[in-house]
Batch of 3 targets.
Target 1
Amino acid sequence: MHGSHAADQRHAEAMAAEISLRPTAASYHAAIGNGMPGWYDEGRAHAWLPYSQMKTAAPPLPVVGTRGSRILLADGRELVDGVASWWTACHGYNHPHIRAAVAAQLDTMPHVMLGGLLHEPAARLATRLATLLPGDLDHVFFSDSGSVAVEVAMKMAVQSWINRGVRGRTRFVAFRGGYHGDTTGTMAVCDPDEGMHSLFRGLLPEHLIVDLPVDEARTEALDRLLAARADEIAGILVEPLVQGAGGMLFHDAEVLRTLRRLADRHDVLLIFDEIFVGFGRTGTLFACEAADVVPDIVTVGKALTGGTLPLAATVASRRVFGAFWSDDPMHALMHGPTYMGNPLACAAALASIDLFAREPRLDQVRAIETQLGAGLASCRGLPGVVDVRVRGAIGVVELDRIDIAALKARFVEQGVYIRPFGRIVYLTPALTIEADDLARLTDAIVAVLSEP
Ligand SMILES: *Cc1c(COP(=O)(O)O)cnc(C)c1O
């Protein structure tokens, strides 16, 4: 015990010495010259970045501003953004309509809790989401991140059974290739190999992660699983049409109709996680519209505020909400994020939804789809490329192997911001991106992947 403590101590001292040397980011200075802002050098020792080996990863780029589809760096360079900040910034950065709405709300009421109170931005946004979503998806529970919205959907599903007097339905069916968040509850419904499952085994509840019913054999397998175990299953959880962060994998709308049919046959709830696909990404405002399927619960997040403020929502059908509507206080939904329904974020979301109504976003998605198809076509046949696929404003080049760090650096040298992961290089640009900027993104991918 003592020996390992001493070793830990030595490791900590060596690390502190190394960290105090690293903030100058010598390699990065060499690459971009002088002019590194003071906050950058100081803060690099303290700011812990996501999914990043802080010791060996390339230093982060110092960003000082955003505009449209551009990211502005401290040295004056502008990168064309192919990611739109994890596909949130659907109208481009700094859209004046959203900025004005948030500024006006800031003057009135930046925040007040929803505990016992209801304010205009949350009320209007709940109404608007209930109107936009199909069928009787009418009851909106706000939260502050996508992972929490999925956690709420899972708790909602489980408790809806309990409230109806049915015990033991605590498991979910979810799918290989899926991604639903990084919190403990949502990790357990992510792809077991792609996700962080194995690392956290023992912490996570066990769910049933199976293949999407894309063909007859897999449909029958899922049907048999549900027949055998429906009495332990609360619901089926799926990212409709595109599994995003698990690998940008596409499936047909028919798969969603199959899931609806199976969920009905075995009386389990169907949950669509639209956090990636929602707000136009695949060509319709919501992916469920393309399949003409009404799920029992939907989660939205990411592009909900047009990429300006954190906000997510879990929207339930009348049937699910009905299970909580009771004279028994114990039947209330036991959840309440502190900042749920934050007025600034709701104002941003309302303004973002205005833009979908006012501006031709879905036409823009179709134009992006066409341009991505043409612009990435020549990647087919390049060495190492195993697939090129496009759906809506999502373009994917899948490789048989990939040097992520080298690719990231080459893209920055080309003046574009593109973040490969797994074995894919992908684009999820702002839906408002100019054709010239989109061409710079696809040209950069073709150029870099053509290099020996
Ligand atoms: C990003 C994402 C989440 C998690 O959202 P956070 O806001 O990062 O917690 C959940 N589901 C899907 C489909 C996502 O793409």
Note: The radius of gyration is 23 Å.
Target 2
Amino acid sequence: MYKKFGIEDNLIEHSKNVEKEIEPIFKEIDQVCEYNSLKVLQAFQNNKISDMHFNQTTGYGYGDVGRDTCEKVFAEVLGAEDALVRGQFISGTHALTVALFAFLRPGDTMLSITGKPYDTLDEVIGIVENPSSLKSFGVNFEKIELVNNEFDYEAIEKRLKEGKVNLIEIQRSKGYSTRKSITLDKLEKVIKHIRNVDKDVIIMIDNCYCEFVNTEEPLEVGADVIVGSLIKNLGGGIAPNGAYIAGRRDLVNLASERLTAPGEGKEVGPSLGITKLILQGLFMAPSVVASSLKTAVFASKMLEELGFDVEPKFDDKRADIVQTINFNDKNKLIKYCQGIQMGSPIDSNSIPEPWDMPGYTDQVIMAAGAFTQGSSIELSCDGPIRPPYTAFMQGGLTYEYGKLGVLKAVQNMIG
Ligand SMILES: *Cc1c(COP(=O)(O)O)cnc(C)c1O
């Protein structure tokens, strides 16, 4: 069958050897998947999910039992006091924006301790001028860079002692940078350190791409609030859109009053019939995240053996589902991404080209042959067109489809 996809014999042989070597890693991924599946099932049972929760509301969405119970399930799974899980969030960026505008006030200071946040937050924060940015409302932004992929403990402590910081943002996934993603161990350590110096600062985690990669989530190691997208890990490839904010009850409440209106908060917001899909997505998510991880591990080993610089290495401890490959060559990056598209179920015969995406500074090429527009829990690959010409690949609803996508991309690149 692989030959029908234009994959040559030598590449198939090579992939067989790779699969033998990565077997022990797959076993570990399966164990995490098993644990997280039980965690999800328990939350469904504890909250007595039944057919009636698949109800839908329209209009204001008052008294939406399904929506409210679904949020309780998410809260339990994430170790949160409360959660806001809504289709009214357009994306992860929107949820992060709502959270930041909900928690910060004029004169407040936001401090990122993982360097510059994700590209789409540039205009939200005001790093790039925008009349609706946090900066335009008088919110200050500061950042501390990671040093050799570690938190700069000294600089963080010094800054916290110097003057009031209201919110610390920690972005776990690397975004479009070449740094490593933040593992839960590192997160736990830095949170303890912050708490020793400052008991009050809000610790907010951009948790995009990290859910269910480990058996614990950031709230369980001391974070106050986490934010993520439902067209990434927790949506399990089934949620049609949406995002979540989970954590301390008071913070979730503040966020809800910013998403809807002060005084209305969580009480409104019609589910419009998507609660069943959100719950079903959460139910599938541990297994889908496991498939994405296996696809990433397979790609990592394949491309490392072909001489490319990959991060993480196949046997590294992972914090997220993202695999980066440095091609150091613009054309190879483009060919690889185009190959991912060719291996997709949807739009396999359209060829992606680099373009000026809203919210991003460099041109970006994006391969996404997904059922849900922009969904990156489905196999997808993108790269900003700038040295070292790095592909950021993630997703894979099943390992089999993920593997085919990677093989097709490699074949297309090597010609
Ligand atoms: C995907 C992502 C976001 C949000 O992106 P959307 O495309 O708006 O959902 C934010 N931060 C990180 C680290 C991400 O990976």
Note: The longest strand covers residues 82-86.
Target 3
Amino acid sequence: MREAMASAVVGDDGHGEDPTVNELEERFAALVGKQAAIFLPSGVMGNQIAVRVLTQPGDVIVAGRNQHVVSFEMGASARNSSVQFALVNDSAGVLDLNDVLDVIDAEKDHQPHVSMVSVENTHMPSGGTPWDVNDLRSLAKAIGERPLHLDGARLFNAVVATGTSAAEFAEPATTVMACLSKGLCAPVGSLLAGPAPLMERARIERKRLGGAMRQAGFLAAAGLVALDTMIDRLSEDHLRARRIAELFSEAFPEARYDPTTCRTNIVAFDHPQARQIVGELNALGVEGDTLAPRRIRFVTHAGISDADVDFVAEVLESFKPAAS
Ligand SMILES: *Cc1c(COP(=O)(O)O)cnc(C)c1O
């Protein structure tokens, strides 16, 4: 990846003249079956630009209450686009169609206009849960003309876990965002794809948010390597995460964590002593974090080997309840 960066052919992307950025945008658009894509410094910017181009101030976005765009972007949608969220349950990762339709139906009761629906695939806080593409299709069909934004920060984890292609997942959505800098190992970058006229407006919003870059081809070159070589590798992260999930469920039976819910690279479960447990594990060299006061999260990635999983097993031995 670093070699590809060093030898990248670059130009001024502010003028659309960086061939490596253009290649990455075209490659991603083709991969997700959309007319156009834009390269961005971060996934948050991708979500925020989607909100900017798909809403008007005062509108409502229907989203799961734990989604990144709701809970992990510092209120950016309110700050940048003057919109509010109608939150629905997403504790299992997917949105219930009837919950979404209820919010839309409430427009008839003088409630604000619902301009879009946002979903996350994989859904991180529930434990990296991939959507079933048929559920996404049903949702898109039910909301009709209203746009659907797919926060696919980990879209390729969903692809590898389900065998559904990126284009199949993206087809029901108006816009799709994916991150290159998580499991795909690029140092920087995300992409947003959608219909060409919308992506032209997205370019203006990117500029407004300070996300237009000049010789960004050095970063896009790493992104191309990521798309070429890092997608298939994700299945290794998934196997290791499942093994770690099993170890956690054995070490903390009181959490009633079902390790089979771990289908991608996120190990997440509730525990009343979450902060204390994470603190102790971090001190012992197993690094993770809490997602919420009582929710633990560990993530696997290219830097985690089988030997590291063995190390986790060793450390978790001392947390296991004494055999009766
Ligand atoms: C990480 C993440 C983002 C944001 O990506 P950044 O590159 O960190 O800004 C958006 N959505 C989800 C689901 C994420 O996990």
Note: Residues 42-44, 47, 68, 120, 124, 151, 153, 179, 181, 190 surround pyridoxal-5'-phosphate (CB under 6 Å).
